[in-house]
Amino acid sequence: MIRGLAGLALFALAVAGGGWGHALAQVALVATWALAGLGLVLVVGQTGQLSLGHGAMLALGAYVQAGLVAAGLPALLALPVAAAAGAALGLLASLPGRRLGGLAFGMSTLAFALIVEELLVRLAPWTGGAAGQVVPAFTVGPWRLSSPVAQAALSVAVLTLAWLACRRLIGSALGRAWRASRDNEAAAMAIGVDVGAVRQAAFVAGGALGALAGALSAHWLGYLSPEQFGLGLSFELLMMVFVGGVRTPSGALLGGVVMVALPQLIAIARGALPVLGGGAAGLEVLLFGAVLVVIVLARPAGLAGDGR
Amino acid sequence: MRRLLTALIALAVQFAPPLHAAAPGVTENRIRIATIQDLSGPIAMLGAPIRDGIVMRLDEENERGGVHGRRLAIAVEDSGYDPKKAILATRRLLGSGEVFAFLGNLGTPVVMATMPLIVDAGLPHLFPFSPHQATYAPTHPLKYQLFAPYRDYMDAAVRYMLQEKGYRRVGLLYQDDDYGLEVMRGVEAGLASQGLELVERTGYKRGATDYASQIARLRAAGCDLVVLATVVRETVAAMREARKVGWAVDMLVTASGYSAQTHELGGEAVEGLYGVSVMPHPYADAAEGDLYDWIQRYRTRYDADPNVWSAMGYDVADTFIQGLRAAGRDLDAASFSAALGQLKTTPGFLGGPTYQFSPDDHLGNRRGRMARIVSGRWQLVSDYLD
Questions:
Q1: CATH class of the domain comprising B150-277+370-380
Q2: What pLDDT band is residue A307 in, cutting at 50, 70 and 90?
Q3: What is the nearest CA distance from B166 to chain A, expressed in angstroms?
Q4: CA 20 to 30 Å from A121, out of A17, B95, B98, B363?
Q5: Does some domain include residue A303?
Q6: CATH 3.40.50.2300 residue spans of chain B
Q7: Residues A174-183: what's their mean pLDDT?
Q8: Burial class of B381 by CB neighbour count within 10 A (0 to 12, 13 to 18, 19+)
């Protein structure tokens, strides 16, 4: 209830500070980022695996979507294909987990992300290489979703569906197996949980969600280049879910709000209060960093966590 | 009841658009524009001087009374090179309805993500710092560009080196990305015009520090000129490596390596290096007249020496102002675009090129100049090349 009101207040602030277009564009990006965050909630929060390469899932989703749409497939039909590609990539990324655990496995996901970024450059005939490629607007039949309201509506719709699916997964036997393998691997194995398989399942679901987010963001940003999918993105996503609360889906949403909306609030405040130093470079980054530190100190389990 | 009605009418009048709705951002006595820079991301060292140059030129115009009686104001947004942030900043500025045009936005991902929004909203998208062709071609009434793709500059530069200096065996060291490929295409075009081909080409990953194998390969191919599609640090490292192994080959670097940092960092090793200059570096101790005054004003204002990016920012704002003057007092996007489409600028004391647009060519300049490092500083050695 309080969170809902806070969200409404934030939205009202965004409308007041930059108009409807700005506020709705934020909603679209928050929802898209939260979608990517959901994937990390499953992999990192529920299953306890360190994934340093989630950006690769977004990259694949974005490029598959862009490629299919350019080839003439309707964007709505391309979305599930992009998600399936992400699921396959998630499976691939999880394979070293059969042998490696903990930090070593985390490093393998990092290497995985580097390989994917490199491939995007090398496979220039399909990806446009380092020069990048332009992505057309998302079209549904005769409608071109280029307005912020349409983009927000689609993003929220996809997020809602993914959210429901996640809740279901988390509440299912698979979800319990995820948490069992996270909390005590040996005990989970003792009660007959195939730890390797359930971890792979988390990566498959996480990959699909990441690719969905990538596919949508490709349309919202309109231009893809490999540099956008570097390690920076993977770390940004990880930071997002830790700030929001890595163990529950609402953490992904809260994290998305913080990562997307907070810098905007700071920019608006800076414009309204020249005292903050109108042109000082780096001020926004400084404030953003300070707020993140405060959040992490005050709520170590994230905004959606239980405060401990 | 009547009082309530009066209050409501007063409120409505307050918020209703004026009868003669002028262009967004343009009022009786002010023009407000916007720029999206990188002030905190990976290319902030470009963004900050560009912003400073732009703001300085606008303020100078204001001190002289503005353009056609209107003062110039600018909103500076920091994207941190993140297209997501850039889109939100653009939406916010568009939503305010108080921006006439976007000027000198920085960074290809940022420019490519925001340009469609800006143009769809009917605002001019002017002179972005991105070599992407989509910024001026195909011709669009609201898109104008000052800076050509690397290909155009390098094509002319290589032809000059072949014709004037008689080089025959040209090799290329290139950064393995879009920048390197653009340069490669330009070099190949220049060579093809003389019936030649690259005798060797070798790449490196962005951020590499060791160029021993690349230099050995270029040397083995017997190059008499090595073209460097590098930025500052790599330029210095590559040239040092060549000199270290005793190879005194001549080298030519793109406009990305044309920076005072190149000789500051490289010292002896980069002596004799050729470079392509689009905008001459403003050296303080050699400056005279207007340029000297400008450097002093810049130093006083920002407590830093201007560099080539400050000069480009200043030039971008100056070209915008020349466009505003030509458009006249009756200003909107259409009248401005029409005026810009016929504009031929007068180059200022910074020594930049003449920018000329036509209704079907919105790229203002394709020409660079040759420069060479002599006694530890860049000296121009040719006029603008055709």
A1: alpha beta
A2: low
A3: 33
A4: B363
A5: no
A6: 12-147+290-355, 150-277+370-380
A7: 94
A8: middle
Q: Which tokens belong to A66?
A: 């862009």
- What are the E-state strand segments in A136-267? 138-140, 143-145, 223-224
**Dihedral over Cα of A11, A15, A20, A24: its sign:** negative
**Closest B-chain CA to A229:** B82
Residue A305, domain member (yes or no): no
CATH superfamily of B12-147+290-355: Response regulator (3.40.50.2300)
* Parent domain of A7: 2-298
Average pLDDT, chain B: 91
Q: Is residue A115 part of a domain?
A: yes
What total number of domains does chain A contain? 1
Quote the CA–CA distance of B74 and B71 in Å, as a whole number.
10
Q: Do B40 and A268 touch (CB under 8 A)?
A: no
> Is residue A257 domain-resident?
yes
CB atoms near residue A143 (< 10 Å): 11
* pLDDT band for position A88 (cuts 50, 70, 90): very high
Q: Is the pLDDT of residue B5 over 80?
A: no
pLDDT tens for each residue of B175-193? 888 888 889 999 999 999 9
Tell me the pLDDT tens digit for each residue of B245-300: 999 999 999 998 999 999 999 999 999 999 999 999 999 888 889 999 999 999 99
Smallest Cβ–Cβ distance between B88 and the set A29, A130, A134 belongs to A29
CB contact under 8 A, B177 and A130: yes
Closest by CA position to A82, among listed A55, A62, A106, A54: A62
Residue from the list A18, A132, A225 with its beta carbon closest to the beta carbon of B92: A18
Distance CA A108, CA A102 (A): 10
Percent of chain A beyond pLDDT 70? 95
What single-letter amino acid sits at B124? Answer: P
Return the closest-CA partner of residue B171 out of B282, B251, B270.
B251
